[in-house]
Amino acid sequence: MLLAPSGLSDLDDLIADRRRTLDIVSFLLTKLAEEQDETGEAISARDISRDGRRSELCPGVDEIVAAIDVVRTSQVDVLRVVEASDDPRFTTHVLGAPTAGARWLRALADAIERPAGDA
Question: What is the pTM of this model?
């Protein structure tokens, strides 16, 4: 990538995309926590996207669905499906065990960052 003429630009775009994905994951988890605190009900990607229109981030529904996939495939019990739908935009979710998930992810990150000699 860095050897191509547009390599640095491509890298900058890749970094920006990754940051946006992480920002949307953070937004998703925040909205799920707010909904759980306020109503105790599940919420869909479509609803979260609609709420996000008023934010600077302004995530699209497909970006929210992708963020849900990121969280669900992390092997951490952060999200639980309440009502599945054939269309993922309408599947509703609630928070699972975010604290346990956060601890697991921190432990994993620590293990990855730890030099081999420190193990």
Answer: 0.68
pLDDT in tens, 31-50: 988 898 899 999 999 999 99
Q: At 55, give phi and psi (nearest 5°).
A: -95, 165
Cα 112 to chain centroid, rounded: 20
Tell me the C-alpha distance between 9 and 16, whole Å.
Answer: 10
Determine the Cα angle at 117 with ends 111 and 118, to 5°.
50
Cα(29)–Cα(23) distance, integer angstroms: 10
Could you count the other beta carbons within 10 Å of the beta carbon of residue 40? 8
Q: Phi/psi of residue 80, each to 5°?
A: -125, 135
Mean pLDDT, rounded, for 11-38: 87
**Rounded distance, CA 64 to CA 78, Å?**
15
